[in-house]
Design brief:
It is a single chain. With about 400 residues, the chain is an alpha/beta fold. The chain folds into two domains: about 10-180, NAD(P)-binding Rossmann-like Domain (Rossmann fold), CATH 3.40.50; about 195-385, N-(1-d-carboxylethyl)-l-norvaline Dehydrogenase, domain 2, CATH 1.10.1040.50. It has 17 helices and eight strands. It has helices at about 15-25, 40-55, 65-70, 95-110, 125-130, 165-175, 190-195, 195-205, 215-225, 230-235, 240-250, 265-270, 300-320, 325-335, 345-350, 355-365, 375-385; strands at about 10, 30-35, 75, 85-90, 115-120, 140-145, 150-155, 180. Strands 3-2-1-4-5-6-7-8 form an eight-stranded mixed β-sheet. The longest helix is centred in the last third of the chain and has 24 residues, at about 300-320. The protein starts with 7 loop residues before the first strand and ends in a 6-residue tail after the last helix. The structure holds 1,4-dihydronicotinamide adenine dinucleotide. 1,4-dihydronicotinamide adenine dinucleotide binds near residues 15, 17, 35, 143 and 145.
């Protein structure tokens, strides 16, 4: 049984690993962080120290807590330093072969009852688990960036995972103050699947010349209530990450046209215009660059917002239809993982199922593309006059 005495191991001390270590150490666990790169380990120590110092300065933790959290974390440069851990979360490079080889090495040194988890955002948990003799103890525990701030954690059983271990791990992560949801082991899990149309439908509207990017961003923020517009968000995430996630999800779904990436984004990647980090993406962030102005036409804005929202709802509905997660978990995932103003299925109920169907039918009739096919559950709900909640 996992408890506060659980010793937590983290593999990979990069952006995610160091955040996850801080979360577990703050919850009182003894944490061992292993990385095969000494420079990365040194960098993680500095980042942890400065992150705790900031929390102290903002009076979010006391001096005593700061010392305790730091003392709870040990940085190690040899894998066998994880031998006594009860739960290990891997957050290394997103490469299936590398992850598989780390998991099979790990299994040779850890305790029989140690749970092995991966923080992967796009790889199959079942496939990672297949590298272990005991695949029952392998699962996905997927945090969002930054792990110290974002409340959502997706828990992903592989097909061989032991149900009790899943329940115990979920309880433990809940006790860290996180909001956990259970997702089936399918590409993108919940968030990275359901969020795809936020980017792809915006890109499609832009490529068709219906509106420019700044107007689309304006519509989603001003009318839709989203914290950021799709283009500014893609620029922030970086096209090297956001485009690659889209492409990976599309390929893993056997090239389903629903998930097809956009050429306009691929060109940015090819040009090295990765977004804010290179001072150029869809927008130009160079000093002195002038930001374009949105065309604040309410009717156009409503049209843009509705089209993107309807496509998001369609994907959330399909995720429910295919039993990837429950309606509650799908809505929680989008509000707690990517800050959507409302759960998408709740939003569908508010709009009225007949209106959602009407918008989707219009898109489908006009474009005659499989991309706009309507999720069967929306039709079922329409025919039986049912709502999601
Ligand atoms: P990162 O590049 O910041 O850190 C990866 C760390 O792993 C590096 O310090 C590297 O030295 C270390 N590493 C690589 N191979 C290793 C090995 N064989 N043994 C030990 N250490 C090794 O990467 P980041 O962004 O922290 O991502 C880590 C994982 O988390 C990936 O699977 C990624 O898909 C996932 N993830 C990333 C998110 C993000 O926004 N960055 C969000 C959620 C999940």
């Amino acid at each position: 049984m996992l408890s506060q005495q659980t010793i937590v191991g983290v593999i990979g001390s990069g952006a995610m690993g160091s955040g996850i270590a801080q979360v577990a150490a703050t919850a009182g666990h003894q944490v061992f962080v292993y990385d095969n790169n000494l420079t990365a380990l040194e960098k993680a120590k500095i980042i942890l120290t400065s992150s705790l110092a900031k929390l102290l300065e903002k009076q979010k933790i006391s001096l005593e807590q700061q010392n305790k959290i730091s003392a709870n974390i040990t940085f190690i440069s040899a894998l066998n330093g994880l031998a006594n851990c009860n739960l290990i979360i891997e957050a290394i490079v997103e490469n299936l072969d590398v992850k598989k080889s780390v998991f099979s090495e790990l299994e040779k040194i850890v305790r029989e009852d140690c749970i092995l988890a991966s923080n992967t955002s796009s790889l199959s948990i079942t496939s990672i688990a297949a590298s272990c003799k005991n695949a029952e103890r392998v699962m996905g525990i997927h945090f969002f960036n930054p792990a110290t701030i974002m409340p959502l954690v997706e828990i992903i059983p592989g097909i061989a995972s032991n149900a009790d271990l899943i329940t115990n791990s979920k309880k433990l992560v809940d006790s860290w103050g996180k909001v956990t949801v259970i997702a089936k082991d399918t590409p993108g899990f919940i968030v990275n699947r359901v969020a795809r149309p936020f980017y792809s439908e915006a890109l499609r509207i832009y490529e068709e010349g219906i509106a420019d990017m700044v107007t689309i961003d304006w519509a989603m923020k001003e009318i839709g209530g989203f914290k950021m517009g799709p283009f500014e968000l893609m620029d922030l995430i970086g096209h090297d990450v956001n485009y690659v996630v889209t492409e990976t999800v599309w390929k893993q779904f056997y090239y389903d046209p629903k998930f097809k990436p956009a050429l306009s984004q691929k060109r940015l990647l090819e040009a090295g215009f990765l977004g804010r980090k290179t001072q150029r993406g869809f927008y130009n962030y160079a000093p002195g660059a002038i930001m374009p102005e949105a065309q604040k036409n309410k009717e156009l804005g409503e049209r843009i917002f509705k089209r993107i929202l309807i496509m998001l709802i369609n994907e959330a509905a399909d995720t429910l239809y295919l039993k990837i997660a429950s309606a509650e978990d799908i809505d929680l995932a989008m509000t707690k993982g990517v800050n959507y103003p409302k759960g998408l299925l709740k939003w569908a109920d508010e709009l009225g199922i007949q209106n959602v169907i009407k918008e989707l039918t219009d898109l489908k009739d006009f474009y005659e593309e499989d991309r706009y096919r309507i999720s069967p559950i929306l039709k079922q709900n329409f025919w039986s006059q049912k709502s999601f909640y």
